[in-house]
Amino acid sequence: MGAAKDCCGLSPAGNSEPCSHFVSLGTLGAIPAAALDPNITALGEIPQPPIMGNVDPSKIDEIRRTVYVGNLNSQTTTADQLLEFFKQVGEVKFVRMAGDETQPTRFAFVEFADQNSVPRALAFNGVMFGDRPLKINHSNNAIVKPPEMTPQAAAKELEEVMKRVREAQSFISAAIEPGWLHSTSICNDFLGCF
């Protein structure tokens, strides 16, 4: 049998030197110490994969800032946990959980604020996250985000919500003071006074 490797988690028996290659994150596991260095822009000059298919040119930068994270425990992993975990390598803009929640594993997409965070995130590949090793790769697509509202659309939505709040307040007041309801237009519009 060959000599035991002096590597974190594979140290020969009796070796009590601390491992400097990985940093413990409590229950989440350990990550490569190099991934935490903000000055590292490319670990081993990780090349960008080619963009596949017909891609909207406005999405290329988003794709280049996004990683795929697989092998996540469906029952215990949340988007907030991933956000906290990946904030250590760079500013995270979005996290989107994906996959079937009823299956044992799911996947997610993590979009960073800049492309320099991606190689550091890729260094997490194989690192234990809870009870499973992460599978991290470059993403082939951007995260589908909810559409942004124009100020006019936001104002209209707020106006509609406030109208429903006022209606609810009126119904509550009517329940407290029954005679008050007959003197309002809500009585005619919604209840039909009797």
From TrEMBL:
Residues 65-141 form the RRM domain. One of its GO terms (cellular component) is spliceosomal complex. One of its GO terms (biological process) is RNA splicing. SMART domains: RRM. SUPFAM superfamilies: RNA-binding domain, RBD. GO terms for molecular function: RNA binding. It holds the Pfam family RRM_1. Keywords: RNA-binding. Signal peptide: none annotated. Transmembrane segments: none annotated. PANTHER family: SERINE/ARGININE-RICH SPLICING FACTOR, SPLICING REGULATORY GLUTAMIC ACID AND LYSINE RICH PROTEIN 1. This is RRM domain-containing protein. It comes from Strigops habroptila (Kakapo).
